[in-house]
Design goal:
The structure holds two protein chains of two kinds. In chain A, about 10% of the residues lie in helices and about 30% in strands. Chain A is of the alpha+beta class. In chain A, strand 2 (about 75-85) and strand 3 (about 90-100) form a beta hairpin. The longest helix of chain A has 24 residues, at about 5-30. In chain A, about 50% of the residues are buried. Chain B is mainly β. Chain B has helices at about 10-15, 35, 45-50, 100-105, 195-200, 250-255, and strands at about 1-5, 45, 55-65, 85-95, 115-120, 125-135, 145-150, 165, 175-180, 185-190, 205-210, 235-245, 270, 320, 325-330, 340, 345-350, 355, 365-370, 370-375, 380-385, 395-400, 420-425. In chain B, the strands form five sheets. In chain B, strands 12, 13, 15, 17, 18, 19 and 21 form a seven-stranded mixed sheet that branches. Classes of the chains: A alpha+beta, B mainly beta. At the A-B interface, strand 20, strand 23 and strand 24 of A face strand 8, strand 9 and helix 5 of B. Strand 23 (about 395-400) of chain A pairs antiparallel with strand 8 of chain B, so a sheet runs across the interface.
């Protein structure tokens, strides 16, 4: 319930006026805008390797950014409802926010902005209850130009952590200056026990602006260029990975879909997801056609770190669930360089980073980490064979992501009737939630909050003849 | 003909790990002081393919003991359990040195936790695994693997994750080869159907000794947790503290051909080295991984008076002399949080997840605490200095326990149990030097 109906009405009216103005501007500048966009597109294509991520130009792997025009990016987020697929074959009703007129997606878009940007988010609400957005880690957030304050009803009861977009068509415009780089989330501040769990959340990434860096800080997590140890990460399109962890109680979703009440004392998650998908869907490409409402993959697609590929890769962890989640990457540690959008450094700049093979993110917490895979032993079938006699397929059980060979870049014979997913002898190395009862999907084990690190041979994957 | 086992680039952090970068290149090993050279052994590749294993595990099922009262009908105690046992498990057994007949005899004789073992930095370690099948579940034909959890840069072939790698079917064998480069405390477990196999008990602790070991100039014992370069991780005694849990319903389900709904998980029992307090104080069975003691059939030999702990051989009792430094190696393969608290003695956390507590620029990030929050899959190295002996009892007693109380009882209303053990501090010079961990 909102406290002040007349004011709200007035604000909505102003909102509509503002929208009409925008429409007019949009028409006036339509063709010039198209021309500019085409030019921009050409520039992007020319500089593809150096600047991979723009909205809807996603690489098949790696974090997909929705971007706006710096220094004043504006995002129009509209509520949508729809269904997501889970690894047990279920479909679950969810809410989400979509950019512009896009159809339902889960989770909500990954908003990427630059340090110093004045970020505007216009929230349109088509749901039958008031909603809002909060931006933990951002300072001086405005709602319709006024400082965001918690909302109370006439009786003094807290109704929302931020001014709302009223039910059934209301809107609100939030804005803030993204004053420091890092990984953040945005989520509903109204009835969050229902609304966040139904899907009103997304990632917000603020990139540093480093004048001395020709990429403007695009491949740094923080403003630490020139420090003894930095946050610079690999420049490849898939060099940056998002691990956004969430949970779903299908009975909550069912109750909401049917317009029924739900007693949150009975809340009991049955699904745990990464980027809105459950393993093995997590390793499918971004925008996989068979996951129409779950656009974001979580595959970490890398090559071994060596002298020709020296930079480590970047993983941004966010936990939007209700409990701490321990995430365990096989074969690599997460070197944590940022926490809750702050570099892990002392006041004098000393490096306080730490390595974890079980990285525990608390509810609402974010971590920035660097990782790599180093072909440390350099096993080679001719010059440096693995120091065992391979028992072969007749004496072992092969996994479908095994290549049939211990060696990176090689494939080997597979059991009759079984095929491998391996294209070129690349390695598939898992990373997953280690509270293992959660590595399930309502009873189906080894699904849910897991993904792979795919390690291609140096130089990339050339399918075997 | 020969090669060193360490063809690796040395990162800045490694540089710091080895205390100022004395060890610049393995090629220069002969220039190193003897204590550091000792770890760099040469391996003949051709013969190495058939070299004997350092350790030999068999995966199978079995029974262990947890306090039968209060009962959790119908799940606990399991009515199928032969006395004095209560709880069905899957697990590993150390079958090093046994004959093929003796090995076959170990079906249905798994232990929990899995055998503790350790390796040395830069020394190749070969772990052979066989799969004896599950006697209680002839309908299940599960393969097994060993996943060394936290081993950096493992190739899938030796990682044990069955989707991207190989697993060991019943009656077959496979040898995992590890070339450890990073000292610290790790854990290992079977990764096949891992929610089930880990929870059923195929989980244990493993650690890697640093190359700095043997250098008595930095700490008199010459034993260290890490290559600290300054003796800050030196210790006199070490104790593995492997944290696991038992959800009675899931264990019962596996014995009775049922499936649990894993999202209903809860920890009925929280175990320390496979036992609950006060059994955690009971003596060790055969725990030296490299010199296992068995009976003529290859079975574990129960300690008289502790027959119920025949398949839970690892003690958690910490005994030390006043003034000694004691390293506690914690690792958790439970599914929920543990908060291990040491009353009356502060611990210095010197390592997390097999990494020394230092920033990438060498900044010391170790810290003092009296309680450690440990989540599933995490490990910690914590060192305390035993306080002065006060008397008049033969030893002073301190408690190490899980402050999350439902993990430090045995389901009783009140009382103590679960993840709890005692630290006993004797007058200086009482106990002889420690030879193997947890003794």
């Amino acid at each position: 319930m909102v406290s002040d109906q007349p004011n709200l009405f007035e604000r909505n009216a102003r909102e509509k006026e503002f929208d009409m103005h925008k429409v007019f501007l949009a028409r006036k500048f339509f063709w010039p805008a198209i021309a500019a966009a085409l030019l921009l597109l050409l520039l992007f294509v020319a500089a593809y390797r150096a600047r991979p991520a723009a909205a809807q130009m996603a690489s098949s792997d790696g974090m997909v950014c929705t971007t706006g025009a710096s220094p004043n990016p504006t995002f129009v987020l509209t509520t949508r409802t729809g269904y997501i697929g889970t690894p047990d074959g279920n479909v679950v009703f969810m809410w989400g926010l979509s950019e512009g007129g896009n159809p339902f997606q889960h989770p909500s878009p990954v908003l990427c902005v630059n340090e110093g940007d004045t970020v505007t988010i216009i929230l349109h609400n088509t749901l039958s209850q008031d909603i809002s957005l909060i931006f933990p880690g951002q300072e001086n957030v405005l709602a319709d130009g006024q400082p965001v304050q918690p909302q109370f009803d006439a009786g003094g009861l807290l109704t929302s952590l931020a001014p709302v977009a009223a039910a059934n068509g209301g809107s609100v415009t939030y804005s803030f200056v993204a004053s420091h780089p890092g990984t953040f989330l945005y989520e509903s501040g109204t009835n969050p026990g229902i609304q966040v769990r139904m899907g009103l959340f997304g990632a917000l990434v603020v990139r540093p602006v480093i004048a001395s860096d020709p990429n403007g800080g695009r491949y740094f997590a923080y403003n630490d260029a020139g420090a003894a140890v930095t946050s610079e990460f690999n420049h490849s399109p898939s060099g940056e990975v998002l691990i956004l962890q969430s949970e779903v109680d299908p009975y909550l979703s069912q109750a909401i879909e049917r317009g029924q009440g739900f007693n949150l004392n009975n809340y009991h998650p049955r699904y745990w997801l990464v980027n809105g998908r459950g393993f093995p869907d997590t390793i499918a490409p971004n925008y996989a056609s068979w996951l129409p409402s779950q656009p974001y993959g979580a595959l970490a697609h890398v090559q071994p770190v060596d002298s020709s590929n020296p930079l480590w890769y970047m993983e941004r962890f966010i936990n939007v669930s209700s409990q701490p989640l321990p995430f365990h990457p096989h074969g690599k540690n997460a070197v944590v360089i940022g926490r809750d959008g702050q570099p892990v450094r002392g006041d004098a700049g000393e490096d306080l980073s730490f390595e974890r093979f079980a990285l525990v993110a608390a509810p609402g917490q974010t971590y920035d980490s660097l990782f790599h895979w180093h072909n440390r032993e350099g096993y080679d079938s001719a010059t440096n064979p693995v120091p065992v006699v391979d028992p072969g397929w007749a004496n072992l059980q092969y996994g479908m992501y095994y290549s049939g060979s211990p060696y990176l870049g090689m494939t080997g014979p597979f059991p009759p009737g079984m095929s491998t997913m391996s294209e070129c002898g690349e390695y598939y190395i898992i990373a997953h939630n280690h509270a293992l009862f959660q590595l399930t999907s309502w009873g189906v084990p080894m699904t849910g909050p897991g993904t792979f690190m795919r390690v291609d041979p140096p130089g990339g994957c050339s399918p075997m003849p | 003909m020969t090669k060193t086992v360490t063809p690796r680039r040395i990162s800045r952090r490694d540089f710091l790990k080895i205390g100022g970068g004395v060890l610049l290149a393995t090629a220069g090993a002969k220039l190193l002081p003897a204590f550091m050279r000792r770890g760099i052994e040469l391996v003949d590749v051709a013969s190495a393919q058939t070299a004997p294993p350092d350790l030999f595990f068999a995966g199978t099922d079995g029974w262990i003991y947890l306090p039968p009262t209060p009962a959790i009908p119908p799940y606990h105690p399991d009515t199928l359990a032969p006395a004095p046992f209560t709880t069905y498990i899957f697990g590993f057994r150390n079958v090093l040195g046994l004959t093929p007949t003796q090995i076959a005899n170990q079906k249905m004789k798994a232990q929990h936790t899995a055998p503790l073992f350790w390796a040395r930095q830069e020394v190749e370690f070969r772990l052979k695994l066989t799969n004896l099948g599950l006697q209680m579940r002839p309908d299940l034909t599960d393969a097994h693997t060993v996943h060394w959890h936290g081993f950096r840069d493992a190739i899938p072939y030796f990682d044990g994750e069955p989707h991207g790698s190989v697993a060991v079917p019943m009656g077959k064998e496979f040898t995992y080869v590890y070339r450890p480069h990073d000292p610290g405390t790790y854990m290992f477990h079977c990764h096949v159907e891992d929610v089930e196999h880990v929870h059923m008990g195929m989980a244990g602790l493993v650690f890697v000794r640093p190359q700095q070991d043997g250098n008595t100039a930095l700490y008199p014992s010459g034993k260290y947790a890490y290559n600290d370069g300054d003796g800050s991780t030196g210790f006199d005694r070490e104790f593995a503290m492997m944290l696991t849990e038992v959800w009675a319903e899931a264990h019962w389900d596996d014995a009775h051909i049922q499936l649990p709904e894993w999202s209903d998980y809860r920890a009925d029992f929280a175990l320390l080295n496979g036992r609950v307090y006060p059994d955690t104080l009971a003596p060790n069975g055969s725990i030296d991984p490299f010199n296992p003691i068995t009976d003529a059939n290859g079975d574990l030999v129960p300690t008289p008076g502790y027959e119920h702990l025949q398949y839970q051989p690892l003690s958690s009792l910490v005994q030390c002399n006043a003034g000694e430094r004691v390293l506690l190696r914690f690792a958790s393969l439970g599914f929920t949080q543990s908060v291990m608290t040491l009353t009356g003695i502060k611990m210095r956390v010197v390592g997390e997840d097999a990494t020394p507590k230092r920033g990438r620029d060498g900044t010391d990030t170790s810290y003092w605490t009296d309680s450690l929050s440990i989540y599933p899959g995490a490990s910690y190295d914590a060192i305390f200095t035993a306080p002065p002996y006060q008397g008049p009892a033969p030893y002073d007693t301190y408690l190490l326990y899980n402050r999350s109380y439902r993990h430090s009882n045995n389901l009783e209303a009140g009382g103590f149990g679960g993840q709890m053990t005692e630290v006993r501090v004797f007058p200086p010079g009482t106990l002889p030097p420690q030879t193997i961990p947890n003794t």
